[in-house]
Fold this sequence. Notes:
- With 240 residues, this protein is α+β, with helices and mostly antiparallel strands.
- The chain has one domain: Lambda Exonuclease, Chain A.
- The chain is built from 6 helices and 8 strands; from the N terminus they run βββααααβββαββα.
- A 5-stranded mixed beta sheet has the order 4-5-6-7-8, sandwiched between helices. The protein has a 3-stranded antiparallel beta sheet with strand order 1-2-3.
- A hairpin with a 4-residue loop joins β7 and β8.
- The longest helix is centred in the N-terminal third of the chain and has 27 residues.
Amino acid sequence: MVNLIPVKHKFKYASLKRQDLPEGRRYVYGEQKLPSVTTIISATKDKSGLEAWSKRIGKENADKIKNEAAAVGTHMHNVMERMIAYRDLPRPTNWLMTKGYEMGYHLINTYFKNIQEIWGSEVPVYYPNKYAGTVDLVCVYRDKPSIVDFKQSLRPKRAEWIEDYFHQLAAYALAHDEIHGTEINFGVVLVAVQDGSTQEFTTTGEEFKQYKNAWKERVEKYYAVGGLPAPKTGSNGNKD
Length: 240
C-alpha cells in the first residue's frame, strides 16, 4: 500500500493499554482509565429499536446475527490494517473470514484512490480526563485532513440512521485536535454492505461542528447518568 499511497508519520501517537471490563472498555493513560468512545455511545444511545428487533426474531437468532456480523467486521478491518502496514493476511479458515476479506478489498478498491496521504492507521487517541479510542484511519481524503471509519452492514444505510457513526468521527477529531494541534473538519464513513455494495458518507463544515458539540453533550451525559466523575488530573496539575 505504501507504493500506492504515501505514509507520513506526522504525529507521535501515545501507546494506550486497553482493558475490557464489565462496565465497558477502558483505555489506560497514566493514572487515568478513560472510557472508550464506543462505550460512551453504547451507554447513551436509544436501544429500544434494537431491543424490539431482538424480541421479534428471538434472542438466540439476534445474538447469532450480531456475532457473525462482528466477526465479518473484524476480518474486514484486518484487510485494511494489514494492507496499509504492508503485512501479509492469514489464509481464510472459514466463510465469515472470506466474506470479511472480500468486503475489505472492495472498500480498498472503491475508495482508497481518494486518499492522498496516510498519517496513521489503527492509532489510539484520547481527550484528557474524558475518553479515548482507536481511529481506523487518519489521513488526507479528497484533499482534506480527515478521520475515516470503516463499517460493515447487513444492508445499505441511510444518513439519518447513522448519527452514532458521525458522533464517533467527531469524538476522534476532537481528541486528535486537542492532543496534536490539528484542525480536522472532515469525517468519512466507508460502509461495506454484505450484498456487495459500498457506501460513502461524509460530514464537514458547520454540520461536523454540530456533531462535535453533540458529542461533547453526550460525554457529559455519560458521566452524569452513570454517576461517574470525570477522571482527575494528576497531582502535578497536568492532564496525565
